[in-house]
Amino acid sequence: HLPSMRTPTAMIVGLVLCPCGLLLTLTATLAPNWRQVSHIPNQPIDLILEQGIWDMCQEQQSTHNRLCGQADELGYFEQVPVSVAQGLMPTSLVLNLLGLVVAALGVRCWRKEPRHLLAGVAGLVLFLSGLLSLMPASWYTHELWALPAPAGSTLVVGYSLVLSYLGSCLEILGGLALTLSFHHCCKER
Q: Residue 38's beta-bridge partner residues?
């Protein structure tokens, strides 16, 4: 008879994926690159405008001169998908931190047995956190080409949007892994 592992694999998976998701979501929230606008008429050919949910930067590729805090002349920040992202992304981050604290209390490797109910609740909170960051990223992607941009310019997805998707998926998967702890609660009853 083999000794039982202290921490179930699903809990370890959850505790690895969710902090990674947190870092990616944090970067996506803060970095001003949800969308890149290039080939802007009457501007240097190598000028790229990077639009985030809090800031706008322009960079000239040949000189790597980067200026942030650009004026929002087209009302980009007033758009609903941007405003929703400004609300939901920080909310997701706070929920993720809360979920990780609860998960740490539930998994607690220094105890003989993990607290399965607590770990399961943490999983639900982390799953919700992932959904809250996935929603604005999805909506923004759907509206990417409809959001205001200089006429005739080229629009592409920025790295922050990609990081937001990756972070959300890691949080959702990590949260689901932790919710498997509820299975143990049912077995104990």
A: 154
pLDDT the model gives residue 40: 93
Eight-class DSSP state of 77: G
Tell me the C-alpha distance between 119 and 78, whole Å. 39
Residues 120-130: tens digit of each pLDDT: 999 999 999 99
Q: Are 87 and 110 in contact (CB under 8 A)?
A: no
| Paired sense of beta strands 154-157 and 35-38, if any | antiparallel
- Count of C-beta atoms within a 10 Å radius of residue 32: 19
Length of the chain: 189
* 3-class DSSP assignment, residue 79: coil
- pLDDT reported for residue 7: 74
Please tell me the distance from the alpha carbon of residue 18 to that of residue 99, in angstroms, as a whole number. Answer: 9
Helices 9-30, 80-107: axis angle to 10 degrees equals: 150
Yes or no: say if 7 and 26 are a contact pair by the CB < 8 Å rule. Answer: no
